[in-house]
Specification:
Rossmann fold, 2 domains, five-stranded mixed sheet, 18 helices, 12 strands, globular, binds 5-phosphoarabinonic acid
Amino acid sequence: MINLYWKNATEKVVGPEHGLTSEDLAGVAPSVEAAHAALMDQVRHGQPGYTALPDHPSYPSQVKQLAARFRENTTDLVVLGIGGSALGAIAIQNALHPATYNLISDKKRGGPRLFVLDNVDPALIADTFKCLRRRLETTLFNVISKSGETAETAAQFMIVREMLRERLGDKFASRIVATTDAEKGTLHEIARQDGYATLPVPGDVGGRFSVLSPVGLFPAAMTGVDIDAMLAGAVAMKQRLANPKWRENPACVLAAVKVLMFNRKGKPLHVMMPYSNRLYMLADWYRQIWAESLGKRLSVDGQREVFTGPTPIKALGTTDQHSQVQLYREGPNDKLVVFLEVDKHPADVRIPDSFADVDGMAYLAKSKLSKLLAAEKSATEYALAVSKRPSVTLRFNGITPQSIGEFFYLYEFVTSLAGEMLGINTYDQPAVELGKQATFALMGRKGYEEQAKEMKPILREDKNYLA
Ligand code: PA5
């Protein structure tokens, strides 16, 4: 279960210049209520597409069937994908398995090791494949691409396909699962011709909203995550978020706080700071959904330039107390911090009573690390508040498949509401597309010759500026 605590973002704690006043809240009410009503209207028709994923009639069973087939004979699972096709799998893996998961022996681990290759850094790819060389026959590659044409994923896939063909000959196709558009696209076509097992990326769900589709579910199921429980968490959150009383609805409150902080309190930077290593990659997932969905040049009707979007930042408690908090407290007052806090951690450790006579250490004796972590979080929250820096906290009762499912759905919904309130199209990413096309042009793809010409004046190197 996740709850939102937001008093530290109000004038009661950080004063009226940086905190939300009752006037601010009264002022935002019509906008958040209208955004919620508009969104719920779409939800009733299964839109936006991600809202239909928690209780989808067939995806979970499709995923479980395929996972059951491959779990038997797979020691290593390698996800080839980037952006929305990778970040969900990384976040789930990081949250629901120990950090040492890949180091556990095959017998004890209970599922394959997981590698998510979300870059084309040659050293990353070479090192990973070197490590898998002796286990290639039992390695499964899950290539995930909605468009089927993203250069990074396409390149990785081509390398893997050749590697498998060399080693396994005719049987190479049996070690690839393609997650892609069910009806069209380059990868779809290749999967059909080569005969891979496939899973669908729903046509109406963008990459960054796809974690609860087969995109995120298959890698999770392969490593033994209870995907039914994760989806049940998302369903429970979906039901909670249907509540039209906005002050009782955590998504509405969070969207309202964030939009007010951005529009009225001079807080364009929105930090997510989990006090849990397990939850750290949720912050990475959040960075993408927030940035790609809300960072937009045009208004939703395409008529006005608005150049909007709060900048998402990730930080880790307590680690970044010793790196970022100096800036957060004394630098520009331009940030809203969203803490993630855990009531019951998956494991705990008691500090021994080793130095009863040493003042600088004795106070720690016999406490659990969870207590120290919680105290550090409260201390940071307090220190920020003293400097009039607003924060809110998302409280997780535990790190379970349920709470992770809740989190994903909550933040997807908050993103949709914030997009409505900011008056932009939450679901496109025109600026990302240009980068993809420019890469095609630079790599000599047919049909992109004009694009290559256009790019020359900017990319031509000028030695006068080499220092
Ligand atoms: O959210 C998005 O739309 C993007 O981040 C995509 O997920 C990313 O660019 C990868 O695209 P594709 O799945 O088509 O390879």
